[in-house]
Amino acid sequence: MSDTLSEHTKSIVRATVPALAAHGMTITAAMYKRLFQDPEVRDLFNQANQGEDGRQTKALAHAVLAYAQNIDNLAVLGAAVERIAQKHVGLHIQPEHYPHVATALLGAIKEVLGDAATDEILSAWGEAYWFLANILIRREKQIYDHLKSSEGGWNGWRKFIVVAKRRESDIITSFVLQPVDGGPVVGHRPGQYLTFKFDVPGLSPQRRNYSISSAPNGMTYRISVKREANGTVSKHLHDRVQKGDVIFVSPPTGDFHLPERPERPVVLLSGGVGLTPMVSMLETIVDSGVELSVHYVHGAQDGRVHAMGSHVRGLADGRPHLKTAIFYETPNEHDERGVHFDHHGHITIDWLAANTPIEDADFYLCGPKPFLAAFVNGLYKAGVSQERIHFEFFGPADDLAAA
User: Fold this and answer.
1) Which residues does the annotation mark as catalytic?
2) 103 closest CA partner among 67, 130, 80, 71
3) Architecture of domain 266-402
4) Cβ(169)–Cβ(306) below 8 Å
5) Which end of the chain is more exposed for a tag (fewer CB within 10 A), N or C?
6) What's the CA gap between 10 and 344, in Å, rounded?
């Protein structure tokens, strides 16, 4: 496989941009339908993202269109490639899985575009697919090799036992996990997630990602999971998984994380269960002993659903360089200002501009899509450069501006 795409191939891919813009979701929906005819391949995917809202179909359609639009300047897709590679390693995607996707994608293009999908177009897209696939395969090998060679590292699925289960709020529960083999665990970068394989009664194996909510300690991980009303796996965790149970875990991955040595002030901004990677970051900063200026800003509906509030306040207590600000949208009768929360209402860009070092801080954001759409775009408009805005949200990545 060539290290570059031919000019002829690039010209054909460019010419398909209008068709992809018009029919992209139809093509990716047809691709997944073909792909999932193989149960082994289907089980590699989080089926929760294949629901009626078409999140994964839409996300892939955006990714394919972006690839075609940037075929002459693929360097701009570097961050997206890294995100995909990290996700694939968590799911234990191997080189032998890529031909299945190639066959399904090219077949879907032909199915949807009909006679317009000439042999020349299919050949060009085949070359373009394998060019990108080989970039991913090489990067994934690097990640696999690094994880396997690291102290406490591993590849694939490792058995972990639940050594503690703790209710953090009405809807969020934490699980502390330790390897069954008694060995150490590779140190995660605060902000990364673990990938799990669950055996849920009556269903095929379920795969999910959950952010690590603790600082690295070499022996255990903690995840803190929100019970979703329609969440098959989250309800399984809350209702069925108990202390002493064993689950399968892939090593920590993800491109959203705190740098090893932060050089600027940090603002940790989250909404709802998006606090989980932020708590990992906050604990890590405290453990490091570095007196870095940190602002932890979190929004929740009220005290019933707010998790880890006292833990966060305890971390900041006696450390003037760590400041916390908790916003409750609708405090209940048991919520006391100054004890459980600090501000009534929503976090705003104006509040951040007035109360955080917006001129030079790195902003780390995690939360539901509307939350991130508002703050990623709002911070950028307020003058925060893109390289200082780092974000993670749960579900397949797509265009936040469309929210």
Assistant:
1) 98, 140
2) 130
3) 3-Layer(aba) Sandwich (3.40)
4) yes
5) N
6) 54
